[in-house]
Design goal:
InterPro entries: Histidine_triad_CS, Histidine_triad_HIT, HIT-like, HIT-like_sf. Pfam families: HIT. One of its GO terms (molecular function) is catalytic activity. This is HIT domain-containing protein. By secondary structure, the protein is α+β, with helices and mostly antiparallel strands. It is built from four helices and five strands; from the N terminus they run H-H-E-E-E-H-E-E-H. It has a five-stranded antiparallel β-sheet with strand order 1-2-3-5-4. A hairpin with a 3-residue loop joins strand 1 and strand 2. Helix 3 packs across helix 4. 28% of the residues are buried.
Length: 247
């Protein structure tokens, strides 16, 4: 990011605060308890001695979760941070698990997004959708149209299209069946397509707890995609190096 948008744009502030980090950093060992330490092999620090060998220098996972991040601009309950894409919990969710998927680069509208970044957003939206729904509702039976997996993916462009933050982002909004419909053939008013409804501030403690579960599920999903589809979603981290002061 080459501009100073992080001083005025809340999503740029998040991008400025959180460097890229491989999702599988948050994998837990098999059969581990919830209190066991995370498997941080993927986040091994580079050697401190000078060497001519190409090394990987990946920030600590504490950069996602450390208490000091709860103060100041840019704090977010982060799920994903790559070179081009961020995913984090909405601070005023319509439903539990409401996630925003945003570009790291400051682009105001979808038409401003370059092809490479657009491809990466398209890559992550189905992954994030599966992760959110599986975390909230468990596994879905294959092809079950009437399952508990119901959600909207919404993207707005411009003030008259209900865009509130002038930075490209997609809403992934779970639709839990916890309220009756308004009438036969009608959905509840807060569950309409474009994401309108009652919104409340996200509780910080609950947000971090949920974000932790989502990060773990995302790590497992990235491994599943590599195993079953033969696609390495972490390929960009293969020659990863963070320069201090730059993201």
């Amino acid at each position: 990011m080459t501009s100073d948008h992080h001083h005025t744009c809340p999503f740029c502030a998040i991008a400025h605060k959180y460097p890229p980090l491989p999702p599988t950093t948050f994998l837990r060992p098999k059969n581990s308890s919830h209190d066991d330490h995370l498997n941080l092999a993927a986040a091994a620090a580079a050697p401190t001695t000078t060497t001519t060998t190409t090394t990987t220098d990946i920030p600590s996972p504490d950069s996602f979760t450390e208490p000091s991040n709860s103060d100041g601009p840019g704090h977010a309950h982060l799920l994903l941070s790559t070179k081009h894409v961020l995913a984090f919990l909405d601070i005023m969710p319509l439903t539990r698990g409401h996630v925003l998927v945003a570009t790291r680069e400051h682009c105001e509208r979808l038409g401003d997004v370059g092809v490479a970044v657009g491809r990466e957003i398209g890559q992550w939206l189905p992954v994030i959708s599966r992760v959110v729904m599986r975390t909230l509702f468990g596994e879905e039976e294959q092809g079950d149209f009437n399952s508990l997996w119901n959600w909207n993916v919404v993207q707005n462009n411009g003030r008259f299209a209900a865009q509130q933050v002038p930075h490209v982002h997609f809403h992934v909004i779970p639709r839990p069946p916890d309220r009756p419909a308004e009438g036969k053939g009608k959905a509840h008013l807060s569950y309409v397509m474009f994401g309108r409804g009652q919104r409340e501030d996200l509780d910080d403690e609950e947000g971090e707890s949920l974000a932790g579960m989502l990060r773990e599920e995302l790590a497992r999903e990235v491994e599943r995609v590599k195993r079953e589809e033969g696609l390495d979603l972490e390929g960009e981290f293969g020659k990863f190096r963070v320069e201090k002061g730059k993201l």
